[in-house]
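Blinded run. Sample ID left blank on purpose so nobody reads anything into the name before looking at the predicted structure. Input follows.
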Amino acid sequence: MSDDPRPADAKMNERRRRLPRTVLALSLVSLFTDASSEIIYPLLPLFLTATLGASAETLGVIEGAAETTASLLKLVSGWWSDRVARRKPLVVAGYAIASLARPLVAFAQSAGQVLAIRVSDRVGKGIRSSPRDALLADAVAPDQRGRAYGLHRAADNFGAVIGPLIAFSVLHWTSISLRHLFLLAAVPGLFALVALVVGVREEPRAAASVTAAKRGPLLSGGLPTRFWGYLAVLLLFTLGNSSDAFILLRASQLGVSAALLPIIWAMLHVVKSATNTPSGALSDRVGRVPLIVAGWLVFAGVYLAFGRATATWQAWALFAVYGTYFGLTEGVEKALVADLVPADKRGAGFGWYNLAIGLGALPASIIFGAVWDRYGSARAFELGAALAATAAVALILVVPRRITR
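Blinded prediction complete.
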């Protein structure tokens, strides 16, 4: 018998409140990784256009190609992680590749070299992301999924606050060049690898689960119809969701200085981080679909307003509101994937989820950049807003409010 005098219900509730060590450690890994990435990312559009002379359309090609590469690998790595006893080795390999490639932007002399480095960085992300997301789902009970993914995204976004603040501090208080600043991204990347290797403990998955995955059809077998409907709607939304490099470029046009771009980017991630976990926990109670629909409608409104903005203060306000879109959807979209797919297909399910986003990322960014160059930024943002609003309506029709698995 247990020596704990508390009632059984109280002990059960405490266990439900706790998130496993794996979730906490992976959250810390994402915090350091995003701190590394976001030292570079807010300044990359300026570096490409001002230093290397690239156009908005070239920026769209680079970002779209990088994300599409990552998404194709996310499908393969997720599927493979279902067929092996441990997912952690794939996660470690992916983070290591990205941490080594990312700081090499400091040495780039052309847009083509930036493309190669960005693609290499995203290769690492492609290898790690789906196995990591499946590992998170394996570690928690169904009624903790929203909170677990919300916490993970909150840590990720807090890292995206730290990175721009480092960049701002270095640029503001020193005379260091952008290239030397980009080299600093290697330091938090190293911390992420240490946290991953030391902090994440994974129990081998059950032999029956691995065997079932190996016997299933390649890549797409065993996934339900509702899941494919969800992905179709997600792809529609993604076609209007171009790279955030464009809203950084728009902020620059509205008068946000180069030194303040990391700060406005950090503010965005403060809002993301503050809203991720509460939104995830709320989705555990009221369902995933209402949160995602609300987030997509916020996105549509923000994009519409970005196209019509005329003042610097409006850029700051819109970035803050834009953060709530991420808070409402980032963790909740992933929790919905875990709700919809069987346990032995989680890696493949997250792989297809990430592929859908990636398949939309390349045309979304290319089309957005082309419309911007030819018709102006307002038309490009209006297109994104229209696709987001359409997808929000479609999601209500395709996916039920609650799914039990």
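Unblinding after everyone has recorded impressions. DSSP finds 17 helices and no strands in the chain.
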